[in-house]
Amino acid sequence: MTTTGGFEPVHCTIVPPHVLDKLARHEDPALSGPARQTLERDAYERTHRRLTTVIGAPAVAAPAGAAEQKPHRTIYDARHRQDLPGKKVRGEGDKPGKDATVNRAYAGLGATFDLYLNAYRRDSINGEGLPLDATVHFDANYNNAFWNGEQMVFGDGDGEIFLDFTIPVDVIGHELTHGVTQYTANLTYFGQPGALNESMSDVFGSLIKQYTLGQTAAEADWLIGAGLLAPRITGTALRSMKEPGKAYDDDALGKDPQPGTMDGYVRTGRDNGGVHINSGIPNHAFYLVAQALGGHAWERAGQIWYDVLTGGELPQEALFSDFARLTLAAARSRYNDGEELLAVTKAWEQVGVPSA
User: Fold this and answer.
1) 278 CB-side CA count, 13 A
2) Is the pTM of this model over 0.85?
3) Mind giving me the DSSP string for 214-278?
4) Is position 160 annotated as part of the catalytic site?
5) Between 20 and 30 A from 17 (CA), which of 36, 42, 69, 204?
6) Active site residue 45
7) Catalytically annotated residue among 45, 150, 160, 175
8) To 10 degrees, what angle do helices 339-351 and 280-293 make?
9) DSSP string covering 303-333, please?
10) What number of other Cβ atoms are within 10 A of residue 338's Cβ?
11) pLDDT in tens, 197-246
12) Helix residue spans in 88-168 (DSSP H)
């Protein structure tokens, strides 16, 4: 396992602030109220995360005697309150209960563990068997899910804009991958390195879904958060790796602002410098590589991305061009000068990111 010195865990949410900002200004209080409440809670969690970073988070180790590489999951129920972690409702090996949200969270943690172990020989998100904890039914009408540096937290959604956040397995994989990044490259959560941080979570979140469904790159939908939007919303998901900017176009949500190439790069001070917006560019590059190579995307395309994330050479302040250059080096190192290197080279050219 490769790590960086001094982790900087951040409060990473699946729903971008710009989406909630738009909803918070809506004239219908049924839409604006939950959005404002969610923004306030997210601001509190971000502050808490910064304080925890300063004073140090409690160390979490694998269970004693846990030499076998298997997940160690615990699901808690916040019962619509804000106290974490809440009441334990399911532990590792326990049979499914009547609460579908609990069962989905448990399965999603397992799916994430399986992809990282079976595809990349990584034992949990820290590579050393870290227990996977999650809290469901967080707060009332909470429109988000997040990784807080120590555990997963899921809201139930407001039913008007968002549904239960445990429904898309890629949302679970996305948030847990923030933990993988935290323990490896530890990418700074601002600007281009922050967009890379978000993109890594989208890439592996999508791969976790594809692995779970046994899909090839051609069969996958390449959507992040499909099934999360309520029926009244005009859209398919939160983001599209295949067609950045076309995930939704709705009166309440606005239009998906993601660019797919550097021609549309957005310069902004909001959303930590547009981390959820400009991530569409490296997202689309990965999609292009996966399509060019075909087959199961977690194998060759995913392996190249994983090699860069965990290889120890990716700077915390990496720009898109730094990441692109390292993917070329990783492709050449693992696959020589074959079709993998050609696919990676062409993909970065198509999205306008220099890789030389």
Assistant:
1) 27
2) yes
3) T--TTT---EESTT-B-TTSSBS-SEESSSTT-SBEETTTEE----SSGGGPPP-SSHHHHTTTT
4) no
5) 204
6) no
7) 175
8) 150
9) HHHHHHHHSS-S-TT--HHHHHHHHHHHHHH
10) 12
11) 999 999 999 999 999 999 999 999 999 999 999 999 999 999 999 999 99
12) 100-120
